[in-house]
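Memo to structure team: turn this sequence into structure tokens by end of day. - J.P.
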Amino acid sequence: MCAGGGAVKTAVITTVRGRGSHLRRQLQGLALSTQSADMHVVVALGDSRVGEIVAEEGSPASVVELDAGEPVPIAHGRNQGAAAALRGSAQLLIFLDVDCIPGRELIGRYRHTAAQRQHANALLCGPVTYLAPPGPGGYSIAECQARVNPHPARPVPSDSDVLPTTEYALFWSLSFAVTAPTWNRIGGFCERYRGYGGEDTDFAQCAAARRVPMRWVGGAHAFHQFHPTTDPPVHHLDDILRNASIFHERWGWWPMQGWLAAFEATGLIARDNGGCPYLVQDH
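Reply from structure team:
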């Protein structure tokens, strides 16, 4: 990749399972971007409707269909999406969760930042605004783009700035970008993780272990569409316990501490003398 700021072949990668309306809004948002991606790879995780939705929206996205059961193999899906993009000679990979509508400048800001020598080998992260529930008519893409209010738990550089960080624990996979060499250096997502939680924290730890710098990219805004959640996410309890144990085995410390503490406080789990969480009642 050149350091002089020239355009680089860019792929947006999205995994989808049962979020058809969210996918539609994302496709509509991408169509309004000030810079277009060269490819949009949509990975359908056992969701037969994805191809129809892409066609109905008139999107040029390519669909990779995977035979995926439960727990959902999100890490595997992202890796397969990246592999498809690299086969298409993509030089910059932008990962965007299906819940997220891209800001108009998201692609351009990631592309511009990755083209700078001091950032070309970094893990690039953009700010994410969590949207309120939509009205009866659903979201208006234009209105969403005007409601920039990034999540307060993450850094928010000004729109033209790039902020270096060593806080890899703050990485989230909602919206991030890496060059192809950096993706290969990190090694992709660990596919032992299935279902909800842990795979993004693991990915950031892999980046840190391989001395990949991390940056927050101002102006690369994404807008997370509302969907109902529970706090703590009890319906993902089995996934979180399994994935937390995998993470501890790999890195020696427990991730998702807030959720584990909340599960313990409600009596769903306990911990043995080594700190390992386990179920104490049916759920």
